[in-house]
Write the C-alpha cells for this entry.
Amino acid sequence: MRALLPLLRTGWGWGWRAGSIVAARLPRRVSAGAVPGRAMALYRTEERGQPHSPDYRVFLKNEAGHYISPFHDIPLKVDSAENLFNMVVEIPRWTNAKMEIATEEPLNPIKPDIKDGKLRYVANIFPHKGYIWNYGALPQTWEDPHQKDKSTNCCGDDDPIDVCEIGSKVLSCGEVIPVKILGTLALIDQGETDWKLIAINVNDPEASKFHDIDDVMKYKPGYLEATLNWFRLYKVPEGKPENQFAFDGEFKNKAFALEVIKSAHECWKALLMKKRDGGAINCTNVQVCDSPFHCTQEEARSLVESVSFSANKECNKEEQVWHFLGK
C-alpha cells in the first residue's frame, strides 16, 4: 500500500489524496441554485438480472461512465458550506419491495432484501401503501456495530444511515439526489441503533420552506406521526412485536441529526482504512485511492460483468393485501 498522504478536508467531504488526484472529489462549488442539478447529473444506473428475482442488481456509474460503489464512492456532502447531502434512493415511495445497498458485495449494488430464500416486501398497513417516503441512505456513513452510541446506549446496525425523503416527487431506485437534513428518529431494532433521518429533496418545489424538524410539523401536519406509527408497526404483520424507539419516539432536530451523521462518517473513514473491523462488509471502491480496498476501473468492470443480466422484466409483485392494525 502506498504511503498515506494527508487527507483533503472540505467540510465533511473528505477525500484521500494520491499525488495530485483527489479520490472522492466533490462537485466544484457553484451557485446554490445550480448545485442540485449538477449533483443529480453525476450518476446513472445500470440494471442487471431480472427485477423481482434474487439476482437483480442496480449498479451505479459516475458521469464518466465508470462503475462505482454507492456506499463508498459518492461523497457524503454535495456542498461543504451548506446543509446539502447526497442521498442514494433504494426504495421509491408507495412501493413495497425491500431494496437495499448490498454492503457485503463488491461495489455494493442495490439488491432485493432476501430472507429464508424469499424476497421481502413490506405490508400495506392501513391507511399506508408500502413505504410512505422515498427511502434510502447517506453514502460514506456507517453505523458501527461495535461502537455504542452515547445517546441511545446501543451499538450501530452495521449499515449506512437510513433516510426518509419527504418531498412530493416519487423517485427511482438508484437515483442520487441532494437533500437537506431536517431531523432524525432513533429506532431501536433488536438492541441496535437504527437512525432514520428525515430529509427533503433540494429540488422539491417546497424545499425552501423546510429548515428543521418543526417545519415538517408545520407544513406537513401528521407526517411525522405517520412516520413514527409506520416504523412502530411495519413488522407486526410478520408476527413480530412492535418496534421500540429511543427518546420515547421523539424526533430530534437538525443539529442533533448532523452530529449523528458526522459520527457515522468518521466510522466510515476508519472502516475504509482498516482501522475498524468491518466483518463481512465489502469496502471495494474505485475512487478512494489510498484505501487498501481500492480497485481499478477495469477491475470494477469485471466485477459487474460477472453478474448475470436479463433484459426481461417480470410483472410487479408488490403485496396488495391491506392490514388493519388500529387499536
